[in-house]
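Annex B. Sample input.
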Amino acid sequence: MCGILAVIGKDIEAEKISSLSKRMSHRGPDESGLKITEEGYVLSHERLSIVDLTTGIQPIQGTRSAWMVHNGEIYNHVALRNNELKDHTFRTTGDSEVIVHLYEKYGYDFVDMLDGVFSFVVIDGDDFIVGRDPIGVKPLYYGTDDSGAMWFASEMKALADHCVEFSAFPPGHYYTPATGFVRFYKPEWFESEKAIQPADLTKLRESLIEATRKRLMADVPLGVLLSGGLDSSLTSSIAARLIKDSGQKLHSFSIGLDADAPDLKAARKVAEFLGTEHSEVYFTVEEGIEILSQLVWHLETYDVTSIRASTPMYFLSKAIAEKGIKVVLSGEGADEVFGGYLYFKNAPSPEEFQKETIRRVQRLATADCLRADKSTMAHGLEARVPFLDKAFLKTAMEMVPEEKMASTYDGVEKYILRKAFDTPEQPFLPEEVLWRQKEQFSDGVGYNWIDQLIEYASRQVSDVQMETAASKFPVNTPATKEAYFYRELFHKHFPQDSAAKTVKRWIPKWQKDLDPSGRANETHVAPGMKKEMAKL
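Annex B, continued. Sample output.
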């Protein structure tokens, strides 16, 4: 994973672009690269070396005049080299280079051939193409400056104060000067009525195993983020099985306010069960509050849910990076795909349940994907997300919603996923973890985190400020003192209206209390979930 910056216009100062690119050096602390094309366009790259540690320096030139920069991982790069691109000569052994060769061979019509996560820019003379992966796992922003030059960057901070207008690049699209924006990712499951496939537990299980296998591609040590919840525990279990005979040691990491945090206690059981090399990280509420301003600068959002959950993830990522780990697996996406948030239990019908899962998956780029990427990349750590694999999404999202609806099974959310991995003959997880109740990450680190954070933020904002919030912040006006506090932090770093408009707030549906904490849902029960709750 890396940071990219490209500016396509005349009379661009390379030194200025290099300086702006360095604002993202946390994304790529290993090396930097810059290319000025014959037309005067600039490509810049901050690299985190994970695949091909020696020759994969970017920008990368194709066989002719095209150059490219890429942030992400292309998991099918070997298959593309051996088949579609078997007649091409490559300069590196890394995954990124296939992008520029596909452009040279197919023109614009190649982006959907990529299996992976990515944001990239290819420049060829006066022509160029920019693309972002199907779900938006990797961030990308675009804008124009007062001279008309187009800017593209992994993070908003590299272009916000140089563009007159800017926005988030839409996931699943590519852009060219000839076509404008084109949606290349158009799966059938975007239409709720296409969810007609009966549940196939074997197919669901094997699809997630394969999605995890792809994401073990690395030339550096591998770790897993292990919260003790279902999603991260499953990906950890699968990874442990896949590398069992490789001689590698799987490193697992958990975080909480103290040793009694709900997530830490569950994660301990999983780590012991899997035999991972396990590490626990602790942080205090005071430490969390102290880094909020820096955190908002990294996250580039004022969304309450994202900030609450990103704080422990930020501390955890720092500790992992300090141990020399560069890549980790994470469980993002499962709650959106399977309706795992507690409010889904209040869905009025299977049709509405399915529509909400689609909406949540399509907005992951503004929520959990943004949080996972920017919290980890703040410390040069790459997070990989098996639940958002294209093939797995097809399997899971085309399933009839009745099979996934939590309310059908007495409140056991993600029942169908749990059932797929409930294999007593060769168990993936301890029984009590497999059937544990959902805890949102910001809750699971310790309930005091959110409670004290709300109290602190409320003390920083007066009633008068809340009364005038709409005039000061007309875009996404904050409705609580906590939201106002985060908005002010964001405004100090990113005062532009364009910046405010890039943020989408995470708000639960179908529940009375609109606080995004899972504990605000009336179905939340503290002790945890028992398998007997499901009438199998």
